[in-house]
Predict the structure.
Amino acid sequence: MSTQNEVKVWDLFVRCFHWSLVVLFVVSYLTGDEETDIHFWSGYAIATLVVVRVIWGLIGSEHARFSDFVYSPAVIKAYARDVMAGSAKRYIGHNPLGGLMVVALLLSLTFTTLSGMVLLGVDEGEGPFASLKTAELSVPNVSFIATAYADDDDDHRSDHKASKKGGKEEEEDGLLEEVHEFFVNFTLLLVLLHIGGVVLESRRHKENLARAMVHGKKRV
Ligand code: HEM
Ligand code: HEM
């Protein structure tokens, strides 16, 4: 219910962005162990959301813009000190620490989705980085050396040159998987801190910030 004491803070795009991101993040996280299309497509959807959010951060409504919530390190430090002292003032948009968290989340999601796409490219020769795959094609129980490009077929794709995946390639895949996993876990850590921050701020100012992210309005 809208009252005169409330003001619109989060526009429709920011709210749809946020809750779609939450759902997609859970889907991506839960499907990570299997190499399924659901995992890849939810990851692509997150990457798209992040790109559109960055554009919206430049041209969107007042509190959606980076200029509204990206503060200098000095202001962030002073705000953090005030939080510790229990005297931090209330912000209608993101507070300086909240703004820092938004930037950190968007960056971490960018690295998570990018590392996933690179991993898929190198490992499977699929996705936007498919060209990174050098010469590996796997079928059950056998590994064939093949090129990722069809125009190399004048040597009949050296189809029957069975070979085990080279140790170096395996190492590379393993490393990339660890990089992807690192960013996934780092994002998860940020999400937990983010939710903790939302709960603390909601208590301190006696307002339900999660609900505000649903209907978009906050107390004046
Ligand atoms: C925020 C988005 C994403 C999250 C939360 C996420 C999460 C995960 C998790 C938890 C794993 C399992 C790691 C492990 O083996 O312990 C994983 C693996 C993987 N992810 Fe993602 N991922 C995301 C985006 C992507 C994207 C965009 C792609 C590619 C298009 C991708 C490709 C892969 C691949 C190829 C694996 C390895 C699967 C395997 O070999 O078992 N991920 N991801
Ligand atoms: C159920 C769990 C969650 C709740 C209750 C929640 C709640 C909120 C709230 C209240 C805000 C606004 C903060 C403020 O008032 O300054 C916010 C912003 C944000 N949250 Fe969450 N969040 C959750 C999960 C997540 C997850 C899983 C992600 C990322 C994977 C995420 C990413 C963000 C981002 C990027 C923003 C900035 C929104 C914008 O300005 O576009 N949140 N969240």
In short: Residues 51 and 112 are 13 Å apart (CA to CA).
